[in-house]
Amino acid sequence: MFKRDGTISFLNKLLSINSPTGYTNNAVSFLRETIEDIGYETMTTPKGNLIVQVDGDNGEVTRGLSAHVDTLGLMVRSINSDGTLSLTKLGGPLTPTLDGEYCDIITRDDKVYTGTILSKSPSIHVYKDAATKDRDIDNLIVKLDERVESKEDVQNIGIQNGDIVAYDPKVVVTDSGFIKSRFLDDKASVAVLVSILKMMKQENVTPSTNLKFIFSTYEEVGHGAAWIPEDITELLAVDMGCIGLDLECTEYDVSICAKDSSGPYDYDMTTKLINYAKDKELNYAVDIYPMYGSDASAAMSGGANIKAALIGPGVASSHGMERTHIDALENTFELIRAYIRN
């Protein structure tokens, strides 16, 4: 049974933990503690991916399910002469949406400073191009909430090039069931997989095959699940479904992706998922995502000899201020439950 309140509670906690690509240890530690408290053993790869083994009725077959705990973010590219910070992207954030966002600057010795991401023309009363200036990464800076007026001032408080800049997710859950936040890609799917693990323990559900749950840490830069355990013969990536243009997916659906930028997903596996969704009378959509990649495509690009498919909750405004609905998480949960039982 899908537990809405528990899933949202976990998602809220996970969203509150900064985990840009390359800085995921705290989120993985929280995830590990949560999963071990449920009653599972975990292992962590040298790269930092968290893996959970669940034994099934057929111990000779192992299927994988993946979701990524890393998010978009920024990094200090350089320190400017006026004490502001120039930036470089971690992953592909929609940079115009970052102008005015509050952020944390995390140093190599774990100090955390706060600041604001701003356009280089931040005031309509001063700059003629304040409204029209491009908000690309080269025209955004961080203004620190510290008394710094020079590069040396910033260096003296311990900030240096390569420090992580994590911006505020701004989580809101409405009474009508909408979840508004950055980084629903892909923490919403992580929450769904954790709910699946809880359900199996609480309801004594044994999957039809062995399962390995993979929580990856570098998906946003393309190589999250480039390596997977060799006993996995089939991988189901659980990641956000896209919304817009001619796509059928909505914020209430589980998306089933037939093809993304890496090519088509396994025909038979995708067909089975569609049939499970039909049999369970789920709200679902089948779509093509030409500007998208997943952990499954990373695994295949890395040489994994597997079947692979991609599903996930519909998420609007991806890589910006995202939004989904609890119904999308429930439909995704129910499709995964059908998948692991067959």
Automatic annotation (TrEMBL):
Zn(2+) 2 binds at residues 185, 220, 319. The keyword DNA damage does not apply. One of its GO terms (molecular function) is aminopeptidase activity. CDD domains: M42_glucanase_like. Belongs to the peptidase M42 family. InterPro entries: Peptidase_M42, Peptidase_M42_aminopept, Peptidase_M42_dom2. Zn(2+) 1 binds at residues 68, 185, 239. The active site is at 219 (proton acceptor). Its cofactor is a divalent metal cation. GO terms for biological process: proteolysis. This is Aminopeptidase FrvX. Binds 2 divalent metal cations per subunit. Signal peptide: none annotated. Keywords: Aminopeptidase, Hydrolase, Metal-binding, Protease.
